[in-house]
């Protein structure tokens, strides 16, 4: 999130020994780095005055980066709206992103925490979003990894927080139209709303609406792909004139729809065409997405069967025998899922169905197809730890760390394993390494606590 506007006016605070000297500061939206009370205390400590409400005396409005500054009814923040109007009337008010405010008061470590990218497991802890939801959002491109290391995706914290905020407001009954209006209003002051508008389109989960992109039709809420439609289906055969018109209203005669603005069709139209198509005609990619959907809905046995059907189709096409790499490069044909990913998701479904031994075997299959699959090695380490097979657990986690020694999930689970094995000194080394890559959340607090306990114990020994 960044702030649009003119260059900053000269202020006494820039020459003062205290960075917020002479500033009257208030906050809007949820802060990602701290609660509002702590932020107010920091303002006072840095020479400013913190106030609760927006008024003509306010010189700085700090916008929190935990999702967008939206009210519970989906409207843009009242403080932000008020500040925008004051600026339009000529008032000397600065609107500052939380990250920039942290830099201003020399809390760059907290700013870096906000701007850091996180794995699905870390986001689950920080945002209280189940990992299966994070994976589903990534599959339907609601969120996009900023990088992938050892097949482990890392996501921008603020993008995921934005998706979570929009999803919650939609679930609570706020209309998509109201949210779109608010995001457009925010775009006048805050940069970065274009991506959230695209997220909003994907999050619309009216059961009567499906979305169509270049690959076919999917349900935005679940990511389930239903059909592989032709490029321009004749909707007039199955729906009213109004429905057909609504589907193509946004596309002019000389324009083509693209993946960023998928068209929509009624659920009834999609279902009628789906009924004409047998599951025996489904592709491996369709079975993979069906397995993911079933797993997300806790239908684990059915999910496993879907993944098996997917792998069977891959094998029957002889793609695995010809060239396993072709499956990931697209040379073996269209829409081939990666067999490593299929095995990984099947392992997860098996584990959640209570079939630990079968899950372990499938995680091994995933690493055979992709030896650098950090998440598969880490999951193997966790399952072997739960079975108290210490040597096998350590081998798996050390393998994950050797692939990328900055993966926080592998470091966390290895530190936990070493503690369980009573190898305290070794564990402390990895708790310290973990903190270098994750300094917020409950596990970071636990790591700090372990290091503080060790330091205190060492001090007491020296005193004796």
Question: What can you tell me about this protein's structure?
Answer:
This protein is α/β, with parallel strands linked by helices and 464 residues long. Among the domains are: 2-110, BRCT domain (Rossmann fold), CATH 3.40.50; 117-250 and 257-281, no CATH class. 54% of the residues lie in helices and 10% in strands. The chain contains 22 helices and 13 strands. The protein has helices at 36-45, 78-88, 98-104, 108-115, 120-127, 131-139, 157-171, 176-186, 193-203, 241-248, 267-275, 284-296, 300-316, 319-322, 326-329, 339-352, 356-369, 374-386, 390-403, 408-420, 424-437, 442-463, and strands spanning 2-3, 24-28, 49-50, 60-63, 94-97, 117-118, 145-149, 152-156, 190-191, 209-213, 216-218, 225-227, 263-266. Strands 3-2-4-5 form a four-stranded parallel beta sheet, sandwiched between helices. α1 links the parallel β2 (24-28) and β3. Residues 4-15, 205-215 and 225-272 have low confidence and may be disordered.
Number of strands: 13
Q: What is the averaged pLDDT score?
A: 79
Helix content range of the residues, please?
40-55%
With strands numbered from the N-terminus, the spatial order across the biggest sheet is 3-2-4-5
Show unreliable segments.
4-15, 205-215, 225-272
Oligomeric state as shown:
single chain
The end-to-end distance, rounded to whole angstroms, is: 53 Å
Helical run tally: 22
The largest β sheet comes out as: 4 strands, parallel
**Shape annotation:** flat
Radius of gyration: 26 Å
How large is the share of residues in beta strands?
5-15%
SS-derived structural category: alpha/beta
